[in-house]
Structure formats: structure tokens, C-alpha cells
Specification:
By secondary structure, the protein is an alpha/beta fold. It contains 15 helices and 19 strands. A hairpin with a 2-residue loop joins strand 1 and strand 2.
Length: 509
């Protein structure tokens, strides 16, 4: 197969295809995953590349059994979450035409991964997707075909990568699993001693692990962030960036925060240094050590990490809606607030309040009220990016944490949620929500997490007081104080609304 940069043509074994304009750098990034890559490796690479071409955030959905998120590169904690395909008409259409499809509302792009006549998954780009032009769409199509063809069990005729084609409507679509349960676990060895690193790699590979090597702490951090390992074996004495500093950076990223780390060093104070750092999910092994001790420590760390992740998922999920809960939200809000202070990136909140839930419970029963909450949870899952966090905040309230999102962008997100909730039919009626949006964009702001939440809550209060089924963005601190004391203007008051920024949406119940 030959790919010429920008303006070449793709030649396949057994024939040639028409000239195709593609960006060869995108294709090369998929190929750079390397030999021995698992299905997850390839899907991560494809998701990242398609995201770069078509939008800001993407997830890969497995269609085996119950549709679920198989790969979410920005937030591994959402992997395995179920997906309601009836909420994504663009996915069904993408499967039918075997090509990428842009949703009618422009909110998402579905890119199917076909190989060997079957669909191995769908990459769904949901955050600010752009249909693309020029080289983007042809390259995205080729990235999808290339990734699918490289997956195990997806061999194309004569090794060629066929161009997407439209089948007859009656053509059956076979479904293949994305990843086998026996996929080998990946270990990143960060060690500057070449001979010792090779010995580590040989011992681990003989046990069935996939091993990646790095020679410096900085390189190790970069490799872990670009291709998340299951465990990191980290030397302490490294050039440029030592092991302790590298571990601190790894723990600072949501992508690698939960990856277990085993420090290896001949230092006599190793155990004391590890305790002083207060790093979670770490172990240490003093040099020199026996190979059996290393393998036992690695297996122990992997088992413990898996158990912790399962407990964390259970503890952090609201049983009714399947969204996160308040404790998860508070922890993430504190982390994202620090990131604003450090990097100056914007951070927004959307507070969603169900309109007249008590009346719904009284008129239709508590089952209907619970189904309304579930429906809203489904809408939030549909519109939230992998890096966003949607949680059930209280009995009839939800809140969505929107990192890297300005107030204007958060208002657009809120309007999409509001409008879709209003179209949902639950027990013969259409629920509505009032949404308040607040943003923190100045790194030098001394506003606390609680004050930011109060502003979002005040904005939701204003939207509800103005009739509900609307959004309000940009409530001030004084509005928040008034909301807390209950002196905001009543909906039937005349004159301008309180100075709470912009409100949007249709009035309703």
C-alpha cells in the first residue's frame, strides 16, 4: 500500500483506487502504534485521530452485545458505560451506508469501523464537531478503514483497504467483538540502564505482558499520556526528570492518575521517600531484586488496581440515573479549579433543575418521576464529552462540569440539553428543565468552588422563576446571594429581569 502525502493516490494489492487526497501525517500516527498493538491501542489511536480531524472529543462504541463505550481516551473511568443507540440516529445511518454521517442537528459525527464485511465499532465525535472540508473528510474515512483493517479478525481481500461503499438496504451487518477478555496488559518500563531495562522487558514479556520502554522520566510521562499503560515500573534515579517528579506529573493527569506505579531503586531511603510523597496506588521494590519478586509485585499491583477501580466506580455512581454522584463531582471540581489557576483554561458549570417534579410525582406517580430523572440522565450522557462530568446533584437537580469550556460554549451545551429534554415523551407528557450556567475563566480569581456553584444555582433559580424550560447564563455573586435569601424578582413582576447575564429558551411549565 502506498500513500502519497496530501495529493497522492492509494494503491491496493490487486488493483488501484481513484486518486484520493489525504493527509499522510494522520495515517502515519495510526501506523506508529506499532507491532503487537491490541485492539484498544488501535481504537485509541483512531479515536484520537478522528477527534483531531472532526471535533474536540470522541469515544469508541462497541456494538457487541449491549452497546457500550469501549474506548474513551480522555476519561478511562467511563469505559464500559452502556449507550442507548436509539438516541443516536446518526449511528444507525452510518452502519447502513458504511460511511461517516453527521447528525441532523450537527451535534455529533458517527464514524463506523468496517473491516472484513463487519462493523467492529463506531467512533462518535460529540464535542463541537465540525463536518470538515478539504483533506479532513477523506482522511477521516481512510483512518477509519485503516484502523478497522488492522484490527484482529478484520482482514480485507488480498490485504487491501477497500474504499467505503454503500450496500443494499437488505445487506446484513455482522458484528465482531472489539477486544477479547484475554488482551495482554501493557507495562511501561522507565529505566535508563539499557541492560537492566532489557532484562525487565524480557522477564515481563515471557509472562505475557506487552512492554514499552522509556529512558527518562519526561519520556515516560509522554508515553504514558499518549498510550495509557496498565502499570508503570519506574526507576527513581533518571536523567532530566527523576522518578518522583515523573510520578507527581502522572498523578496530576486524570488519564494516568489511577495507573499503579512500582518504584525501583537502590536508595536506602526509598520506602521513606515514597511515604513522604503521599502518592496513592504506588509500591516500591529495592534493587537488586529477584525476578520472581518483581513478577509477584507486578501481579499484586495490577490486581489491587483493578479492585480499587471497581470499588471507585460503584461508590461514584448514582443508582437511579447511572450518572456520577456528589462526592465524585466535588473531587473533580476541586481538581479542575486548580487547573484554571495553573493554566488559565476556562471552566464552566451547568446546573439543571427539573421543572415541577413534585407535581409530576403527585399527578403521575413516583415511577413517572423516576423515569423523568432517568431520561434527563440519558440526555446528559448523550451531550457530555468524555472530559465532562455529569452528576445527579440532588433529588431533582443535576450538574455538569465542563472543563475547557467558556460561558458562551456552556450556554450552547445547556440549550441542546434543554431542547432535547423537552422533546422526550415520558408516560405521555414532556418534562422540562431550567438550566443555570456559570463560568470561571480568570486564573487569578479568588472565587471558591462553593461560590461558583452558588452562581450556577442562582442562574437556574432565575430561569425557573422566569417560567422554566429556559436557560440563564452569567448570574452575578449578588444574584447568588439574593437566591440564597429568596428575594429574587417573582416571574410575574414587571420590568427587566435581574442582572443575570443572558437567558434563553421558550417559556413553559
Amino acid at each position: 500500500m502506498a500513500i502519497q502525502s496530501k495529493s497522492g493516490e492509494l494503491d491496493a494489492v490487486g488493483g488501484s483506487l481513484p486518486a484520493l487526497m489525504v493527509n499522510s501525517e494522520s495515517i502515519q500516527r495510526i501506523l506508529d502504534v506499532g507491532t503487537g498493538a491490541t485492539r484498544t491501542d488501535l481504537l485509541l489511536a483512531a479515536t484520537r485521530e478522528l477527534t483531531a480531524l472532526l471535533g474536540e472529543r470522541g469515544i469508541c462504541i462497541s456494538l457487541e452485545g449491549t452497546p457500550r463505550i469501549a474506548v474513551a481516551p480522555s476519561d478511562p473511568m467511563v469505559e464500559g458505560r452502556s449507550v442507548a443507540l436509539e438516541d443516536h440516529a446518526e449511528i444507525a445511518e452510518a452502519l447502513r451506508v458504511r460511511d461517516l454521517v453527521v447528525a441532523k442537528d450537527g451535534a455529533s459525527i458517527a464514524v463506523p469501523l468496517f473491516g472484513g464485511g463487519g462493523c467492529l465499532g463506531v467512533v462518535l465525535v460529540q464535542s463541537n464537531p465540525r463536518p470538515g472540508d478539504g483533506l479532513d473528510l477523506p482522511t477521516a474515512r481512510l483512518v477509519a478503514r485503516l484502523t478497522a483493517a488492522l484490527l484482529p479478525g478484520a482482514v480485507e481481500l488480498a490485504g487491501a483497504i477497500a474504499a467505503p461503499s454503500v450496500p443494499s438496504p437488505s445487506m446484513p451487518i455482522a458484528v465482531a467483538p472489539l477486544q477479547t477478555a484475554s488482551s495482554p496488559r501493557r507495562i511501561l518500563v522507565v529505566e535508563d540502564d539499557v541492560e537492566l531495562a532489557a532484562a525487565f522487558g524480557d522477564a515481563l514479556e515471557r509472562e505475557g505482558y506487552l512492554v514499552e520502554q522509556a529512558r527518562d522520566g519526561g519520556e515516560g510521562v509522554d508515553r504514558a499520556l499518549s498510550n495509557r499503560p496498565d502499570l508503570i515500573l519506574l526507576d527513581v534515579n533518571l536523567p532530566t526528570l527523576d522518578g518522583f517528579a515523573a510520578a507527581a506529573q502522572l498523578r496530576d493527569s486524570p488519564l494516568t492518575r489511577e495507573v499503579p506505579i512500582i518504584f525501583a531503586s537502590a536508595r536506602h531511603d526509598l520506602s521513606a521517600r515514597v511515604r513522604i510523597l503521599h502518592l496513592e496506588n504506588v509500591d516500591f521494590i529495592p534493587k537488586p531484586f529477584r525476578q520472581d519478586d518483581l513478577l509477584a509485585r507486578v501481579e499484586q499491583s495490577l490486581i489491587g488496581s483493578h479492585a480499587r477501580q471497581r470499588l471507585q466506580r460503584r461508590a461514584a455512581v448514582d443508582d437511579l440515573t447511572g450518572l456520577g454522584n456528589l462526592s465524585m463531582f466535588r473531587a473533580r471540581l476541586a481538581e479542575e479549579h486548580k487547573r484554571v489557576s495553573r493554566y488559565g483554561s476556562p471552566l464552566s458549570l451547568a446546573m439543571i433543575d427539573v421543572d415541577k417534579l413534585k407535581s409530576i410525582n403527585d399527578q403521575h406517580g413516583h415511577v413517572a418521576g423516576s423515569d423523568v430523572l432517568r431520561a434527563i440522565g440519558d440526555v446528559l450522557r448523550r451531550h457530555a464529552r468524555a472530559t465532562d462530568l455529569a452528576v445527579r446533584y440532588g433529588g431533582d437537580e443535576f450538574v455538569v462540569l465542563l472543563p475547557q469550556t467558556t460561558l458562551a460554549e456552556a450556554a450552547i451545551f445547556a440549550e441542546r440539553v434543554r431542547s432535547e429534554v423537552a422533546t422526550r415523551d415520558v408516560h405521555g407528557f414532556h418534562p422540562t428543565v431550567s438550566i443555570g450556567v456559570a463560568s470561571l475563566s480568570r486564573p487569578d480569581s479568588d472565587e471558591t468552588d462553593g461560590q461558583l456553584l452558588n452562581r450556577a444555582d442562582a442562574a437556574a433559580y432565575i430561569a425557573k422563576r422566569q417560567g422554566g424550560n429556559r436557560i440563564c447564563a452569567g448570574a452575578s455573586e449578588s444574584d447568588a446571594e439574593e437566591a440564597m435569601t429568596g428575594v429574587l424578582r417573582r416571574p410575574n413582576d414587571t420590568g427587566p429581569a435581574p442582572s443575570a447575564g443572558s437567558s434563553a429558551g421558550s417559556s413553559g411549565s
